[in-house]
């Protein structure tokens, strides 16, 4: 049997990172030397034979395995400012709880990866690190806000990644980059140690730190190592057969017509998956409220960290009007989504409270409908996004479409993006698999089956043949 040391694995991934990053621009800061030292120490301890393979598998299942982390998640000693421009770099003084757990289970952190400013965009660019590019086509976006992680995973420069998700931030990059991203059941994974954050009591209902992997079969292992021991219990080891799962699906947002329909290739692919799994087509009519209820729920949360809410020590607080004027005169340090977020929050304040209460009743009714439909043995297949990766900055005329994903943050349901093949442009396509709270194992089991049936990750074009950025 060929034995590979942790040092060899870590060194190989470091070399791959150095090879692809000039093309995709996904790395904010690395700790390559420290990672190599940690890998050599792992090899030394293994050589002593003090623990059995069974003990290592149980207690340190990630022993010696390299892991990459979204820069908005705190890794001690590395930058942690979520793409914001500061005069003094903001360095994490301690690890986020989920990073602590990854290290405790033996994982070796290689780097922190790029994110849009304060994770407020479905494309990955900021005024600190710049723009991250999709390895399948460098003129296209890998999505956001976890685009740095997705680009590294898709290009073979990472295997396991820690990301975050409040409106599709782990799932859209996973789809655009042909890999796997899972939004766990709320509070199953600690959300502490992340920027942006909030002290709003229901923040964790919507926001979570999330696993992203190149292969579906690795999602349960990574999630197991991320699960908060004080959070809801997930039965990730539970045996699941496809014959024991009931499948349902929709390929649009119901009767609203607000979000654009699927591209021809995606429509065909999603219906093929639904047919292959004998999924029953349903019409959940309240899904037409996805945009209204998601915006109402998320934009009315108080004390969310924004460019207006938290400023660098010694700097004056920013105001919405002043920052808007500065942006349009090219004088702002922030990107457009961060600037207009304040306007969206102010707009929500003028909407009558009775309207928000009405939308809250629709949220509860939808939760009940999914609870009754799916039970503890059902999954719901639904589009991740209506088309494959677009060229940079074109998200601005597609700002409604992320509601295909954000609705499940609003409802608090676990959901996995699954790779289901390439379209005619050789760009990855994806589908969401949704289950009831606590039934993450159903999503992950279906994800593994989809990987078996449709092949999963496909190597992007070679660096030589990729179109370089202009």
TrEMBL record:
Residues 8-444 form the Amidase domain. One of its GO terms (cellular component) is endomembrane system. This is Amidase domain-containing protein. It holds the Pfam family Amidase.
